[in-house]
Write a structure and sequence with these properties.
The protein is α/β, with parallel strands linked by helices. It has helices spanning 55-68, 84-93, 112-115, 123-130, 141-146, 170-175, 184-196, 209-223, 227-232, 241-255, 268-277, 296-305, 350-362, 364-373, 395-409, 422-437, 442-454, and strands spanning 17-20, 44-50, 72-78, 100-103, 156-163, 166-168, 200-203, 281-284, 317-319, 334-343, 377-378.
Length: 455
């Protein structure tokens, strides 16, 4: 994701794409396409830029919105994650930027820290939509990461995503009569067995700092829950023995044959994502955003996009992160608002933009679409997926694991990126990449990180 956010948290496309739903050429020009004085809350044409959701999911959101607001036309432009900052920064500085744009918690790509000045305060519209007690109706993790230090609600969360889980291809495990690992020792053993058959066991895009961060974060929390957040907050030194142990385990994943050779030259998106979807590796570490590929439609499209002819989806399932020490600690999960929808202060369609953003983030019908797409955990706490309306690849294998994963996220308050500033995020990326490449020992890398954290 990065700066510090890679496409993760988020299964994101690597191509910039525009969804045009019957829009005029004028609607594609952005904020300046409507003369001043004609702004309406129920009519107009607005543009929305983001690195997520995927095109198919974006179409679902817009189509559902237009059933309620047929006179507000929305153009969604999906920008490659790595290109988002380079595209959005000059767009917001101009008078022809998007009316709605994605921001994210923390200091990475699409950082709220960087773009809050271009965002309208949405407190009045969310209060109008949900009442003065609106904070009790939304998952706290959303407003927490999208409210500025001055108290401005700069964006509304559509939903949240959580990292820490591992996704497996059960078809590959069954083929070789193997069982997904529950401990580190089992992980090593399983990967040795796969290697004996010439099969890639667990693939990691170690060239992507953000996913190295997720891996190290999960290892650390498996050893001592909460230690990562404590270090990010400056309450625990990065040179703490628990974090040194975590970094040693991280390193051993490369040396003990869990992570594939050449991982430092690979990106999680598109490389690892495509390999997993194509059935070339048995396991990857992805977050809840990967739930969308549990659906028949999502999986079929994704497998096809991965370059597989005559795409045949497989019933991917999520497993808890293996216990790396045998301590029996809860499997780690950590998350943030996947993204927030902000309204451009320069938009001449501000009311229409607020209607779209508020509807998607606070309306029960809209949030049901979000929940059923399985791209995000819904922002409204009283909305959950309606499984009868969702066609999974194999419900017998998948539904119970998905329900377990979603239920587990409801108890999580630990941030993934939302509490990590830009400088610290970059330092973590350098430290983990250096260890993965063999250019620094775990102890030396953490010492460097400790120095950077004092900044």
């Amino acid at each position: 994701m990065f700066g510090f956010r890679s496409a993760p948290k988020r299964a994101k496309s690597v191509a910039a794409v525009v969804i045009a739903l019957g829009l005029s050429a004028a609607a594609l020009t952005g904020c300046s396409s409507t003369p001043s004085g004609t702004d309406s809350a129920t009519k107009g044409a607005i543009t929305w830029w983001g690195w997520t959701p995927e095109i198919g999911v974006g179409k679902q959101y817009i189509a559902a919105f237009n059933k309620v607001y047929p006179n507000i036309k929305v153009t969604y432009k999906q920008v490659a994650t790595a290109s988002y900052d380079a595209a959005i920064r000059p767009a917001l500085a101009s008078s022809v930027g998007p009316d709605v744009f994605n921001v994210a918690p923390g200091g990475g790509i699409g950082s709220i820290q960087a773009y809050q000045g271009s965002a309208v305060d949405l407190t009045p519209v969310v209060t109008k939509a949900l009442g003065s007690d609106w904070k009790t109706k939304l998952a706290a993790i959303g407003p927490k990461g999208l409210t500025t230090s001055t108290g401005k609600l700069a964006a509304l969360s559509v939903g949240s995503t959580f990292a820490g889980s591992v996704w497996v291809n059960p078809t590959i495990f069954s083929k070789y009569n193997l069982t997904p690992p529950k401990t580190f020792a089992e992980w090593v053993s399983v990967c040795q067995a796969f290697a004996s058959h010439g099969v890639t066991c667990f693939e990691q895009g170690a060239g992507d700092p953000g996913f190295n961060d997720d891996l190290l974060h999960a290892i650390a929390d498996s050893i001592k829950p909460g230690v990562w957040t404590s270090a990010v907050a400056g309450k625990t030194a990065w040179t703490d023995p628990t974090l040194e142990q975590a970094m040693k385990v991280f390193k051993s994943m490369f040396t003990d044959g869990i992570i594939q050779k050449g991982a430092v030259g690979v990106q999680q998106y598109p490389d690892v994502n495509n390999d997993f979807l194509a059935g070339k590796t048995a396991m990857v570490m992805m977050g809840t955003w990967y739930m969308q590929y549990s659906t028949l439609a999502g999986a079929t499209a994704a497998v096809s996009a991965a370059g597989v002819a005559n795409a045949k989806p497989f019933p991917m399932i999520a497993i808890p992160f293996p216990d790396v020490t045998g301590a029996g600690n809860p499997a780690p999960l950590f998350g943030d608002a996947d993204y927030g929808l902000a309204v451009n202060t320069k938009s001449s369609h501000q009311k229409a933009a607020e209607t779209f953003v508020t509807w998607l983030g606070t309306n029960e019908a809209a949030q049901q679409v979000v929940a059923n797409s399985l791209n995000d955990i819904s922002a409204l706490t009283n909305v959950a997926p309606k499984w009868a309306d969702i066609k999974l690849v194999d419900a017998a294998q998948q539904q119970s694991t998905l329900q377990t994963l979603i239920a587990a996220t409801g108890k999580i308050s630990e941030a993934r990126l939302g509490d990590v500033g830009t400088a610290l995020g970059q330092a973590i990326g350098v430290a983990t990449s250096s260890v993965a490449a063999g250019n620094a020992t775990p102890k030396a890398a953490l010492a460097t990180l400790q120095t950077a954290s004092k900044g």
